[in-house]
Design a protein that fits this description.
mainly beta; Carbonic Anhydrase II; 14-stranded mixed beta sheet; two-stranded parallel sheet; 4 helices; 16 strands; 8% helix; 35% strand; carbonate dehydratase activity
């Protein structure tokens, strides 16, 4: 019987760290065999335009205000929606938003620059295929008027209940990289559609201070080889 993720402990250092994830159980080993792993280094000069043919459409967001609860598992903080009403569409397929979580520092690197935080908005279609949107973020010492603490309708950590529109985590400029990779946590399976914005968002230090410091330190997987896979770039204006 293959042990599943919640049964097998893993971490970002030591004997359970990224270099050993594939040895911890058969499920992790199977995921690691997918050849195109994530995260990778992204470069504007090494990308190509994304061509969407016929009636197909690129990435479009259909986010709305809904209820979330926060949980601590898999070495980070997750915001999980109650109803999964928000979604994105890509090439005619609908992917429901199922999870929002954080990595410090960022997992992806853009033009050689790593940011302090990376937000992952994880989506899934009806067949169980994943699409992940990545937002690299700077940290502000001020409480941001456009940040979660100000824009959310409700933000109650004691009751583990938040009500907000996930769009508040997206940058105003929507230009992004797109490539096919893997999950960045065990079982690191693929293929996963990745969309990473090239313009950083912002999170306030007050927002991050709500969470246990040990949960949000050093939870980024090292960069993986790009190999021969294409990386696309989509230019979008506000």
């Amino acid at each position: 019987m293959v042990k599943r993720n919640m049964d097998v402990p893993w971490s970002y250092s030591g004997e359970n760290g990224p270099n050993y994830w594939h040895t911890l159980c058969d499920w992790y080993a199977e995921g690691a065999r997918y050849p195109y792993q994530s995260p990778i280094a992204l470069e504007h000069g090494a990308s190509e335009p994304l061509v969407v043919e016929g009636t197909e459409k690129g990435l479009t967001f259909h986010y709305q205000q809904e209820r979330f609860t926060e949980k601590e598992f898999k070495n980070t903080i997750h915001f999980v929606p109650f109803e999964c009403e928000s979604y994105v569409s890509f090439k005619g397929t609908k992917y429901a938003l199922t999870d929002i979580h954080y990595h410090l520092p960022s997992e992806h690197v853009i033009d050689g620059t790593q940011k302090p935080v990376e937000i992952h908005l994880v989506h899934m279609d009806h067949a169980g295929n994943n699409l992940v949107v990545g937002v690299l973020c700077d940290i502000s010492e001020e409480v941001l008027p456009e940040g979660p603490l100000r824009q959310a309708t409700l933000w109650d950590m004691e009751r583990h209940l938040q009500i907000f529109d996930p769009s508040l985590f997206l940058p105003k400029a929507r230009s992004h990289f797109h490539y096919v990779g893997s999950l960045t946590t065990p079982p690191t399976k693929g293929p996963i559609h990745w969309f990473v914005f090239d313009q950083p968002g912002k999170l306030s230090r007050a927002f991050l201070s709500q969470f246990k410091e040990e949960i949000l330190q050093g939870n980024n997987r090292p960069l993986q080889e790009r190999k021969d896979r294409p990386v696309y770039f989509v230019e979008e204006t506000e």
